Amino acid sequence: MSTPTLELRGATDELLDQLAEVVREGRTHAEPPPYDDPMSFYEKDPDLRVAKWLRAVWRGRGRVEPEAWRLYFVVMVDGRPVGEQTLSGVDFATLGTVTTFSWLSTDLRGRGLGREMREAILHLAFGGLGAKEAASDAFVDNVGSNAVSRALGYEPNGSDWATRQGEPALLNRWRLTRDVWEQRRRDDIELHGVDACHALLPLA
């Protein structure tokens, strides 16, 4: 996928190897901590942090079943890998719902790229894969993620508890319907390789 300011490229081992430097340098983190447990990014040892992150990605890429699948993309800005964006489906053929997850290098936050990444992956979900609804969640103190969801037309969908570094923390849950996305869909996001997704994913 490509937008006027970034690309989402399939997370090949080569791209993950390049992105690993961002993980090793700890530029995945934020305050307050944005991730629930377990999360490799909370690992203090840089090499172990990278190893755990890569193992999680490899496991996720290897599972493509009707019950659950996950697509991994590396975020590219000016030809440089700067983050990760994923799209997951659980019982997608029946429910038509997806969830998203992302992180962006600390040196590029605050420039609107988080929203751009989300809009790109939603374009794939709704425009490319035919999703009916997209979900997202974020801790209540994750101002950036909650602001992106609100700005893109997501509706509040309750709350839930999760652990964050072993401590309980409250999550906001959000949902975006296809109808709302259609009203806001952009015409400057390009999709590439969608036929391959249809061939490999259990979408119907």
TrEMBL record:
<dbReference type="InterPro" id="IPR000182">
    <property type="entry name" value="GNAT_dom"/>
</dbReference>
<dbReference type="Pfam" id="PF13302">
    <property type="entry name" value="Acetyltransf_3"/>
</dbReference>
<dbReference type="GO" id="GO:0016746">
    <property type="term" value="F:acyltransferase activity"/>
</dbReference>
<feature type="domain" description="N-acetyltransferase">
    <location>
        <begin position="6"/>
        <end position="177"/>
    </location>
</feature>
<dbReference type="InterPro" id="IPR051908">
    <property type="entry name" value="Ribosomal_N-acetyltransferase"/>
</dbReference>
<dbReference type="InterPro" id="IPR016181">
    <property type="entry name" value="Acyl_CoA_acyltransferase"/>
</dbReference>
<keyword id="KW-0012">Acyltransferase</keyword>
<protein>
    <submittedName>
        <fullName>GNAT family N-acetyltransferase</fullName>
        <ecNumber>2.3.-.-</ecNumber>
    </submittedName>
</protein>
<keyword id="KW-0808">Transferase</keyword>
